[in-house]
């Protein structure tokens, strides 16, 4: 099967559609017959990253690349950036708005969850925007 | 314990139209934080929550949960019911608190 490569836009505060990219990614992974454990890891990573762009950024996009041996996922946004990545990586640390918290987000578990489920994770951020790279290897 | 057992329990009211109440509940999981639900639940778990927003249904679908129980007698929004109907996810309400709902469901499950 040929690689799957898609890009999706993400709108700021579009909580109603949050999770759509994770859902589409999961569907594609299931179609390709990956193990339930692998599908769950990737889906959690994509979901958490998607939510982060929705609730924390001015908007951005996701790039989903699924190959036979590797899934490469990239999320980019247009700012305002993460002031302190070290703090953001701590479980329970959150700068989410009251609006996000009212909707069940902002537990401060997004980035720690991503780190836990991914095989490789790189986070770069400045005022212009944040780029999150995740890799998931199909063979452990 | 199946979702049908929950539907037949006097404490819980099925509030949507689903065609499948045969799923066996894996474990009970209570939380009002979606990252927690997303990261910790497994297939066929039963989510117990007071979180009344559409993303609850999305997470339930993503993690293939067996059903959702809304506690404290909250009025579940129509958009959640419509989405759950579309995805065939049973939704239950109860006037019980989250803790009391867990106790009732655990007893129903013979624990």
Q: What proportion of the residues of chain A form beta strands (DSSP E)?
A: 25-35%
Domain tally of chain B: 1
From the spread of the alpha carbons, the general shape of chain B counts as globular
Helix-strand pattern of chain A, N to C? EHHEEHHHEE
Write up what this structure looks like.
The complex is a heterodimer of chains A (140) and B (111). Chain A has 140 residues and is an alpha+beta fold. Chain A has a single domain (4-137), classed as 2-Layer Sandwich (Heat Shock Protein 90). Chain A is 36% helix and 27% strand. In chain A, strand 4 (120-126) and strand 5 form a beta hairpin. Chain A starts with a strand and ends with a strand. With 111 residues, chain B is of the alpha/beta class. Chain B starts with a helix and ends with a helix. Chain B has five helices and five strands. Chain B is 38% helix and 14% strand.
List keywords for this structure.
heterodimer, A: 140 residues, alpha+beta, Heat Shock Protein 90, 5-stranded antiparallel beta sheet, 5 strands, globular, B: 111 residues, alpha/beta, Udp-n-acetylmuramoylalanyl-d-glutamate--2,6- Diaminopimelate Ligase, Chain: A, domain 1, 5-stranded mixed beta sheet, 5 helices, 14% strand
């Amino acid at each position: 099967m040929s690689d799957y490569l898609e890009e999706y836009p993400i709108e700021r505060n579009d909580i109603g559609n949050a999770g759509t990219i994770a859902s589409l990614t999961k569907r594609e992974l299931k179609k390709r017959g990956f193990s339930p454990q692998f599908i769950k890891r990737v889906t959690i990573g994509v979901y958490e990253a998607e939510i982060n762009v929705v609730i924390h950024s001015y908007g951005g996009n996701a790039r989903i690349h699924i190959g036979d041996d590797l899934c490469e996922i990239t999320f980019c946004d247009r700012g305002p950036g993460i002031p302190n990545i070290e703090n953001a990586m701590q479980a329970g640390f959150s700068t989410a708005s009251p609006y996000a918290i009212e909707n069940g987000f902002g537990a401060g578990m997004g980035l720690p969850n991503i780190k836990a489920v991914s095989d490789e994770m790189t986070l770069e951020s400045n005022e212009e925007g944040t780029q999150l790279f995740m890799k998931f290897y199909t063979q452990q | 314990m199946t979702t049908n057992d929950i539907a037949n329990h006097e404490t819980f009211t099925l509030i949507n139209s689903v065609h499948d109440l045969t799923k066996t509940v894996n474990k009970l999981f209570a939380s009002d934080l979606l990252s927690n639900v997303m990261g910790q639940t497994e297939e066929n778990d039963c989510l117990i929550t007071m979180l009344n927003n559409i993303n609850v249904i999305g997470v339930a679908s993503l993690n293939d949960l067996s059903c959702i129980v809304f506690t404290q007698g909250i009025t579940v929004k129509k958009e959640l019911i419509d989405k759950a109907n579309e995805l065939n996810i049973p939704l239950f309400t109860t006037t019980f608190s989250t803790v009391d709902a867990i106790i009732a469901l655990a007893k129903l499950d013979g624990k």
